[in-house]
């Protein structure tokens, strides 16, 4: 439902819910929204102690496992098998992520991505000489990553991995908001990292205007983070924030954490108010009238037009080049190109 406002004009005040806050353990929340971006019922609340935003009712692990294995890509992207436009976009994103974090990885590092999608980021690291692999719960995307891009991606969830410190650098790109218990997930990742290992987290920044007010919340994003709540969550799971690659007003948060020896939770006293003000500071009119929005929208439209004409051809060339490079590194690996999906 286009144009449906999700915001509650007069919040009903704080109330106690059954579930504890995943970050600080408090149970008092304030209702911020009652609808998702499609106008369907979805109650979004903010913890009045730490400012973490989440669904009022958190889906179970079993519900999420089935949803992400079979429904998520169709519901979120409108497709199961990836289109050429999506592959090209994911490839460009994967290359950009490598460029962004390359100064934090070192020759010989083992790189691992959780929720690897099409495998483009893993493949970007692989082509740069790193031992790179990952996991992806979506069956169709994981199949594409192995069959077409030849990326080392397994069809698995974080919960399936043995807690063995085997990696130097872990990527969590637009995934942390999907976990039912992100603090638990970060602690599992802590166990996968070697001493002084690092974790790159990227996710939507609710403090920055990353979506129009009527499209801010949806079922797949169980949690919404500000710079303050993400930092507190990382530290509470045993990490130390070493670099913010994003500004406080960027659409996405991009943080590099380092594995630490202790877990500590220090509540930012202003975090709750910052979360509430972030959600309420724009209406539909003021959001769309920002100069930055107009520039970004123009750039997006130009990219979409370009992709509409050239994406399929470029993806075919990309896959052919990957086949050539893979055969060059291993002459016995004469795998056929699989282009049906694009």
The coarse overall form would be: globular
Distance between the termini: 30 Å
Rounded Rg: 20 Å
The proportion of strand residues reads 15-25%
Provide the structure class: alpha/beta
Give the biggest beta sheet.
Answer: 7 strands, mixed
Oligomer: single chain
**CATH fold name of the domain at 60-265, please?**
Rossmann fold
Q: What string gives the helices and strands in order?
A: EEEEHHEHEHEEHEEHEEHHH
CATH class of the domain at 60-265: Alpha Beta
Number of helices: 9
- CATH superfamily of the domain at 60-265, by name, is Vaccinia Virus protein VP39
Number of extended strands = 12
Helical percentage: 25-40%
Question: What topology, given as strand order, has the largest sheet?
Answer: 7-6-5-8-9-12-11
User: Averaged pLDDT, please?
Assistant: 87
What is the CATH architecture descriptor of the domain at 60-265? Answer: 3-Layer(aba) Sandwich
Explain this structure to me?
The structure is a single chain. This protein has 342 residues and is of the alpha/beta class. It has a domain at 60-265: Rossmann fold (3-Layer(aba) Sandwich). It contains 9 helices and 12 strands. The protein has helices spanning 61-77, 84-101, 120-127, 139-147, 182-192, 227-236, 271-280, 284-288, 291-329; strands at residues 14-16, 28-35, 41-47, 53-55, 110-114, 131-135, 153-154, 167-173, 193-204, 223-224, 239-244, 252-259. The strands form 2 sheets. A 7-stranded mixed sheet has the order 7-6-5-8-9-12-11, with helices on both faces. It has a 5-stranded antiparallel sheet with strand order 1-2-3-4-10, covered by helices on one side. It is globular and about 65 Å long. Residues 1-11 and 332-342 have low confidence and may be disordered.
